[in-house]
Amino acid sequence: MTKGQTYHLITLGCPKNEVDSDGMEMLLQQANIVENADAGSADVLIVNTCGFLEAAKEESIGVLRDLAGGKRRHQILIAAGCLAQRNGDEVLKRVPEVDGLLGTRRWMDVVELIKRVRSGPQQRRLQRYSLLGEPDEAFEQPVPRPPVAGGSAYLKISDGCNAPCAFCTIPSFKGKLRSRPIEAIVDEANALVEAGASELVIVAQDTTDFGRDQGEPDSLPRLLSALCNRTSDALKWVRLMYAYPGHVSDALIEVMASQDKIVPYLDMPLQHGDPRTLRRMRRPSRLEMVFDHVDKLRAAMPDVALRTTFIVGYPGETEEEFQGLLSFVQEIRFDKVGAFPFSPEPGTPAAELPDPVPEEAKAERYARLMEAQQPISLRQNQAQVGKVLDILVEGEGAVAETADPLVLGRSYRDAPEVDGLVLVPGIANVPAGTMLQVHINGALEYDLVGEPLLAETYSSRKKLLTEFG
Fold first, then answer.
1. Distance of CA 111 to CAs 29, 102, 124, 468, Å?
2. pLDDT tens-digit readout, 324-352
3. Which pLDDT tens digit goes with each residue over 372-399?
4. Which CATH code for domain 388-468?
5. What region, left, alpha or beta, does residue 333 occupy, with left being phi > 0 and alpha being psi -120 to 50 degrees?
């Protein structure tokens, strides 16, 4: 590889893409290709695309076009990730300046792809520079990762998905579930902790299906135990995302409740709360099972924070079915709820369903769902007032009315990027990644407010400001 080359990488989409981008960056740097914040002067331009929804697809195409519009003669433009895997031909048609495609399971070959493009003839057939197939044994190895900024890092434990959801495109381009070896995951976790991670956020298309492809279903509890027992005390939090209803086993709940490093938090996307809609979605439709999961989780971990995600306006969703969703939300009392209107994705069974819901009705139902959740979220947050919580500092800001300094952090109840914050006014210059103990003295719909407890190393606010000033 020619020395002195630089790259500019843009990551779109979910945390799984962020993990892959981390790996690409480390491999590029090991090949003496260094990061360049200026896309106009970088030698290699890479967009790690998202293709999950039509809106994400168009965003990815837009970013590629923007880079292509300013592309210079010496520059290489690579489309990587989900959209390249799902719609590679369309990418090349709509953005002909793209020089290469890198699939979702081939990110570890990014340097090889650059070499192929650089060594090829000037008038080249683009398909020659597509790496979209299955990976080699590199998938089995720990993912190289850069230093951890802010104390939190995503840890991907598998790729692909076996779920039959009618609305989802992921299996069509990600393929079937492929779990990573436990040893490789633990080695990567230790490397992340050494690089500064206090929190590891476990991600996959379905974290709770880990090991099923290897003939060992319900292997997630064993993996979580290994992560907790074989990492240093510098790792404070292990957070579990993307659990599938029906796969939340008693063994998983027991491990979550017994391992101190695992925070009492679970993200379990349910997609709807009415059995009729769920059946059309090809999702688990026995709501009794969900109530059983929730009862067991709350019995084992009384302070557990539960997050879920719903789709509104799915084809055929009647007002009665939507009311079923609202009743379900009221009864369960989730701490955190995300929602989005249904978007028909070409090639999925849901795109062919009759009785589409009008866009205006989708928007109106989305607003009603979030309005119904707000007082629930507020009550759940108000229950935290008076408690002392550890927070992981993410940054700082200022109080709007007074311009006083304000530290922004997350408690165990808040996953990065999707949940709320803990606001701590009156202190400043606390580095991101610092763990602080905070006395909660206020609650908003989505955020908490608190004041710092000054631990032994911070015997006074003055000392705190001095040490971090």
1. 10, 11, 18, 40
2. 999 999 999 999 999 999 999 888 999 99
3. 999 999 999 999 999 999 999 998 888 7
4. 2.40.50.140
5. left
